[in-house]
Specification:
Two copies of one chain form a homodimer.
Chain A: H1 10-18, E1 33-42, H2 43-55, E2 62-65, E3 89-93, E4 96-99, E5 112-118, H3 121-129, H4 135-138, E6 145-151, E7 161-169, H5 171-181, E8 193-194, E9 221-226, H6 230-238, E10 243-246, E11 252-257, H7 258-261
Chain lengths: ~260, ~260
């Protein structure tokens, strides 16, 4: 039994993470449940960051925002605790990574606002269901992610380039993947690019900025989607005094069903 | 004023063709009106051919079929005459092209059955409307078309390879074009391939089997759609004693609005 098949629901993944039994990436887990990127910021930056997400909705589709101090995402998973329920976190001080813990109880502040942002792992379930192989899942790797030369629309201190995730696909599957992911506008939607990495500022496809490199076969394209790691990259650039994100690939599992996010 | 802008409706194009004033290709004409491929066959082959169209619906989406002897397509254009209203025809005897007249009054038989088949020119209007440039229209050329190594599903004497039309697009436009053309399932729908012509049996992209070659720019893909010239290629292979088709690119203009063929 693979690690992926062990967890059938979002709650099972969260509880395993809470117990410290799951500390790695979540791609392919709890099929049918929406996965989310996490960003936690001090209250004073929350308004600008929320605006940043709205201005860059393809990269940062907001699923839930908590009131200050609350670690409970009411819309996404009313039984969850955002301080413990992700496999791995990243803690940033002045834009510098200072820790990568498996919970953030020790870092918690009463003025933290938490943002849950849609994740491409969600539409991967739809791709697999349609018979489209997803390379990094097949290889048990984290999805490769890259900083591009495409600037996000800035808001307050938040600015920086769009980050993308990449999946290699043959042309027929790439066409189907455009059709399928277009139905998930709150999960990054359609690809933003395919085929020419250098045109979006990616100089070496074999050296992702986040995640793992995967092989691109003969007759395949690299296909790029806007990625929820974008806010993490932006937080690194904005250098708020303190911020917490998920560790790339180690997502928050919601109770939201993928099907409920599809437009038809 | 360009030739394309001269005609605002399907009827205007048909009347110009009927009068012999229009004898060339129709791409981009009467924007918003569906264009159609024509195939005319003796009654004895009609059933097998209709079945061929249904089995290969992406290449041969049927818009209308006339009763034997009738040149009037009731569904597509109730005032039309299929013997005179296309700019140019091709007449085939035993699979060999014997004439390319501007009307087929002299070839008409009382047992002819006419088939109107959806055409990619229809979705080109939707592409242009979305700001996606269509190279062959911009250059005033006929769309390039290629025989592939993809076999159609045979029916009776009708068999042969899928023919595709090609438009060069940059990645962002290719992604949008997949989204847009997916909404026109009766107009060939989404592309069947992009990027690797050799994978579908096209050895020289600069030498189309029908139509004109167009330039593929730096950072562009060739994007391929199933093409309504497929039945013409199939008729050449099946060698019925007599058959009539449109001349490639010289389509029948219907009264059907493109919008009425979109799925949403």
């Amino acid at each position: 039994m693979t690690q992926n098949a062990k967890f059938q629901t979002g709650e099972e993944v969260r509880l395993a993470a809470r117990r410290g039994e799951l500390t790695g990436q979540t791609s392919g887990m709890a099929p049918g449940y929406a996965q989310a990127n996490l960003a936690i910021l001090p209250r004073e930056f929350a308004e600008d960051f929320e605006q940043f997400c709205r201005l860059n909705a393809q990269a940062c589709p907001l699923l839930d925002v908590t009131p200050p101090g609350s670690a409970l995402p009411k819309n996404a998973a009313p039984d969850a605790d955002l301080r413990t329920d992700l496999p791995k976190y990243r803690v940033w001080r002045d834009g510098v990574l200072i820790d990568e813990p498996t919970d953030v109880l020790d870092f918690w502040h009463e003025d933290f606002v938490s943002f849950l942002i849609g994740c491409s792992f969600t539409f991967e379930a739809a791709l697999l269901k349609a018979g489209i192989p997803v390379r990094h899942i097949a290889q048990g790797l984290n999805v490769p992610m890259y900083r591009t030369n495409i600037p996000c629309t800035p808001s307050g201190i938040f600015h920086g380039p769009l980050v993308v995730s990449m999946r290699p696909l043959n042309p027929a599957d790439a066409i189907s993947a455009v059709q399928i992911t277009s139905k998930y506008p709150t999960m990054h939607g359609a690809p933003i690019h395919l085929g020419f990495p250098d045109k979006i500022g990616i100089t070496d496809i074999n050296k992702p900025d986040f995640g793992d490199a995967v092989e691109i076969g003969d007759g395949e394209f690299p296909v790029f989607w806007a990625c929820g790691v974008t806010p993490q990259s932006v937080i690194m650039a904005a250098k708020p005094p303190l911020a917490i994100t998920h560790s790339p690939g180690c997502m928050f599992l919601t109770d939201i069903r993928d099907d409920d996010l599809a437009t038809d």
